[in-house]
Design a protein that fits this description.
Helices cover about 25% and strands about 35% of the residues. The protein is α/β, with parallel strands linked by helices and about 180 residues long. The chain has a five-stranded parallel β-sheet, sandwiched between helices. The mean pLDDT is about 95.
């Protein structure tokens, strides 16, 4: 029998390239950082000793390898983190506006995170978790949108508490009404 997870999250796992100064030639430098709100939440929960599981998809590339290693080091179960040869790991370039607000530019056409299909999701994970958490980015495109809704229904019918992070990023949606 599978050990029950305290929190399972499904959604984006990506690279945030954040400002890291200026090169000697005057060019902006960016630093590779693990990102994705669902994974960030799991990392915090794992620090408190909770059993956490991540469900999602990254590319089979240097960024996907880095993200898998990061989750493992954080104590997050990655048995349902898929690395796909056909799609690249989503990248987000972050800049700061003068007022301190972050601005994102995404490289995701399509990103691996949007290509998760329900047939790739281990249903027993959803049936054996106390809390199931999703963010809004997995809802921007199919097939991940459909997989997210199906996973939500299965987790809810299995008795999981549902948690949702409306991490709205306008640039990733076709329009505000769809979001």
């Amino acid at each position: 029998m599978r050990i029950k997870a305290d929190i399972t999250a499904l959604g984006e796992l990506l690279i945030d390239f954040t400002p890291a100064g200026v090169s000697q030639q005057g060019m902006r430098l960016f630093e590779q950082n693990p990102g994705g709100a669902p994974a960030n939440m799991l990392a915090a929960a794992a620090k408190f000793g909770l059993k956490t599981v991540f469900i999602g998809k990254v590319g089979r590339d240097i960024h996907g390898d880095f993200l898998r290693e990061t989750l493992v080091k954080a104590g997050i179960n990655t048995e349902n983190l898929i690395q796909d040869d056909r799609y690249f790991t989503t990248l987000a370039f972050v800049s700061l506006k003068e007022n301190g607000e972050r601005e994102f530019s995404f490289s995701r056409k399509p990103g691996a995170d949007t290509q998760l299909c329900m047939k790739e999701v281990d249903k027993s994970i959803l049936e054996n978790t106390r809390v199931f958490h999703v963010g809004s980015l997995s809802l921007t495109d199919d097939p991940s949108r459909t997989a997210t809704y199906e996973a939500l229904n299965l987790a809810k019918s299995s008795g999981a508490l549902i948690s949702y992070d409306p991490n709205y990023r306008a640039a990733l949606w076709s329009d505000a009404e769809t979001a």
